[in-house]
Amino acid sequence: MKLIKSFILSILFLLLLLPSNAVAAETSKAPVDSTFDKNIVYKKFDVETKDGFILKAYLSYPKRRLNRYPVIILLHSLGDNYSSFRNFEKKLNYAGFAVLGMDLRGHGKSVYTKTMRQRAWQYFKYDTFALYPTDVLYVIKDVQSKNKKMDFTNYAIIGGDIGANTAVLVARALTIKPKALVLFSPMMKFKGLYIPVAMTEIGLTPILAIASSTDTTSMHEQERLAKFAQGNFDVINTKKGGSGISLLKSYPELEYQLTIWLEQFFKGQLTPINEESLAAAKKILAAEKAAKAEKAAKAKAAREAKLKSNK
């Protein structure tokens, strides 16, 4: 009996020594999050770069049986991570898009090398930020080789500040150019990522630039960048909010309207995004929220009535 107890205690001790994610990596198909949906397929990828950095990438697409889906690539802002896109990701999935994103180098869970040395963006120099476009290309190539659901002849890229500048440089590097670029608070040069020349080399790819009117720097940068665009360069300036992807948190209706815009855009129909359409989207979202609240209230009343009848 003592031998059995000793054996059990040894096993428990060994399990405690294992990294906390060793079991989770095998048991969890998708991160635990209230925004996850059973009608959507979620996949995670570890992508090793040439210099041995491990990038965490995320792919999602509708469960309905289609051979391939148009793709939206999401690139977050400096100091943020991919989780900031979760609500937007879900809307895009329901609109029929595959969504590919990542924690950029030094952000979120992309903070380790293959030798488990930790590296955070706060300590990066410009030569490390310069690797961001190549990192994204690594992720695209790796995920594409492992999953055939993405149609990279039919895609768009959305990014915020450093993600916006990275998006332009990625578009230049890819042979097949994106259908559109949506850039939140793009800059002429962000952490050394200079994009004016690249903008002249992506053909007629239309660009939608978004910034807050309270962010005077981004407003000024939009005007300067517009001169380098070879195709349409449309601008949305919100009345308030922060910069980069944080604008999606300030304006939930913007996620909704962007989803509609992308859905129509990929069908060859342009839906304008302006103050009027954003106001309409806000009303739709308010109506949906009210309908959900009413449904929840009725369900609660029904449960209470059932409990009373059982007494």
List keywords for this structure.
311 residues; alpha/beta; Rossmann fold; 2 domains; nine-stranded mixed sheet; 11 helices; disordered N terminus
Describe the structure.
The chain has 311 residues and is α/β, with parallel strands linked by helices. It has 2 domains: 39-273, 3-Layer(aba) Sandwich (Rossmann fold), CATH 3.40.50.1820; 281-311. The protein has 11 helices and 11 strands. The chain has helices spanning 2-17, 21-27, 86-94, 126-129, 132-146, 162-173, 196-199, 216-226, 246-250, 252-266, 275-310, and strands at 40-48, 53-62, 69-75, 98-102, 112-113, 150-160, 180-184, 189-190, 193-194, 207-212, 233-238. The strands form 2 sheets. Strands 1, 2, 3, 4, 5, 6, 7, 10 and 11 form a 9-stranded mixed sheet that branches. The protein has a two-stranded antiparallel sheet with strand order 8-9. α3 (86-94) links the parallel β3 and β4.
Structural class: alpha/beta
Biggest beta sheet summary = 9 strands, mixed
* Cα separation of the termini: 51 Å
Describe the oligomeric state of these chains in a short phrase: single chain
Give the CA-based shape. globular
What share of residues is helical?
40-55%
CATH class designation of the largest domain = Alpha Beta
Instruction: Work out the strand percent.
Output: 15-25%
CATH architecture of the largest domain: 3-Layer(aba) Sandwich
The number of distinct β-strands equals: 11
CATH superfamily of the largest domain: Alpha/Beta hydrolase fold, catalytic domain
Residue-averaged pLDDT, rounded? 84
Q: Gyration radius, to the nearest Å?
A: 22 Å
Number of domains: 2
Number of helices: 11
Order of helices and strands: HHEEEHEEHHEHEEEHEHEHHH
